Amino acid sequence: MVDEQRLNRWFCESVLPLEPALTRFIRRNWKDAADVVDLRQEIYERALIGARAAIPTHTRQYVYTVARNHLINRAKRERIVSFELVADMTAFDRGVDAFGAERQLSARDELRRALAGLNQLPPRCREVILLRKVEGLTTRETAERLGISINTVEKQMTQGMRALVDHMLGGPGRIQRPSILRRRSKGPRP
User: Fold this and answer.
1) Are residues 160 and 125 in the same domain?
2) Residue 149: helix, strand or coil by DSSP?
3) Lower CB count within 10 Å: N or C terminus of the chain?
4) What percentage of the chain has pLDDT greater than the value 70?
């Protein structure tokens, strides 16, 4: 077991200087740029946990191995686990620390909110988001599967994600149409 002071020194001197390269690695290998910072922090956490037993002699290779494995596991989890399954899971006994249980509960609540927001979306919009974000289809594959244009997929995706984010942040989560369309529907101005 490595003492905390030595572990912290190793992390600051050997791991943190890898941050720009690690960030580029994650960006190249992960589809959602919004997840990069969170993924990097999770990789740091796993690297620290693994190094508690013994500080690795080849830090760079160790960190990139941890990063690669974490990205693979995360991608598998996102493709397989459904919103409903995770949101409805009951607490299970694993001997985790209090913060782990709190993170788990928080994540479950966020998934429930996300599912509620998805259920509020119009059917076509919900279907586009599920195919793109949950099943991981490309824009072209989504358009072909639904028999709509790529442009329509992109518009539905943008409107749906904005509404979903609004819902997650406590708003009504309604689709917001561009103001030009609203003006046209009301008729000419007097």
Assistant:
1) yes
2) coil
3) C
4) 79
Same-domain check for residues 117 and 162: yes
Domain boundary among 30, 55, 80: 80
Which of 163, 164, 144 is CA-nearest to residue 153?
A: 144
> Residues 35, 96: one domain?
no
Amino acid making up residue 180:
I
Two tokens at 112? 């429930």
At residue 101, the 3 state secondary structure works out as: helix
Please say whether the beta carbons of 22 and 40 come within 8 A.
yes
Q: Residue 128 sits in which domain range? A: 84-176
Rounded mean pLDDT of the chain?
Answer: 81
**Inter-residue contact 26 to 36 (CB < 8 Å):** yes
Whether 118 and 76 share a structural domain: no
- Kindly report, residue by residue over 122-181, the tens digit of the pLDDT: 999 999 999 998 888 899 999 999 999 999 999 999 888 888 888 887 777 777 666 545
* Chain position carrying tokens 């995360």: 74
* pLDDT band at residue 63 using 50, 70 and 90 as cut-offs: very high
- Given a contact cutoff of 8 angstroms between Cβ atoms, the answer to whether 173 and 120 are in contact is yes
Termini Cα distance of the chain: 78
The closest alpha carbon to 36, from 51, 49, 20, belongs to: 20
Tell me: do 93 and 168 sit in the same domain: yes
